[in-house]
Write a structure and sequence with these properties.
Fungal_Metabolite_Diox, alpha+beta, binds fe (ii) ion, Phytanoyl-CoA dioxygenase, 3-stranded antiparallel β-sheet, 7-stranded mixed β-sheet, 20% strand
Length: 289
Amino acid sequence: MARRVPLSDPTAVIRTIKEDGGVILTEFSNTSDVERVNHDAAPFINALVEDRASRSLPRETTRCTRLFGRSETAREVWLQQPALLEILNHFLRTVSVPYNDDGAFELGTDAILSAAATLDIGPGVKAQDLHRDDFIWQQTHVNRAEEYTLGSDVCMGLLVPGVDTTAENGATLFLPGSHLWDHSRRPKVEEAVSAEMSVGEAFMFLGSTVHAGGANRTPQPRPMHGFFYCRSYLRPEENQHMWWTREEVRKWSPAAQKQAGYVLDNPFLGHCNETNPVDIFRSNDASIE
Ligand SMILES: [Fe+2]
């Protein structure tokens, strides 16, 4: 079973994730904020659904990508909660001392956004294959210790349901403890539990945890808002910087700009003309005026 811990207790959340690989966060959001994010994604979902219907194509899974920019509530409220960031960076903050000399300094970088999207799972959509999200970065896990090794994960996921999720409508299938499994162990569907959630809860899990989206056997679509983070030195899954406009990014809080990679913890990685990408926006603006 997926255990439940309130977001307000990050120490217990971290302990549970280390033991199980994932946890249901209670008190993640109030209902009206969930409705707001549903509302933010709906026009993009509906346009795709209507387009498919007009071409006699099935509804299937419909995605609202770029959700970080499209939903102010998700970006500025959900994803800036101090307890959430504490948990996220407990697992994904990278700290190193790159030089071995008298002027040695510590380089510490927080997790960055990898992808954000609403997945609207249509009626009849089958379950995903069991997988680990860190396959994107070609991670495999060998010689695993019995206990969790902090620093061994490169990414994490956060799933926030737009409606109550059940085994019937395809709640996320989760294999507790699978973050400790060796790559040679083949996961089985029978080992999965359904991370059933009520609106206001969220499921947070490690990139090494085996999971899958469940099958939707109901006549209603099931929207799930997904937010994915990776270590600062990895290429994010979604090539977001190609999409967002300067005008969009300027509306974001400095914390959100940093999370999305426009303000750098590591000044040597991802700079623009030896400055933060967000500063390039500002200087370009000044040159126009
Ligand atoms: Fe996944």
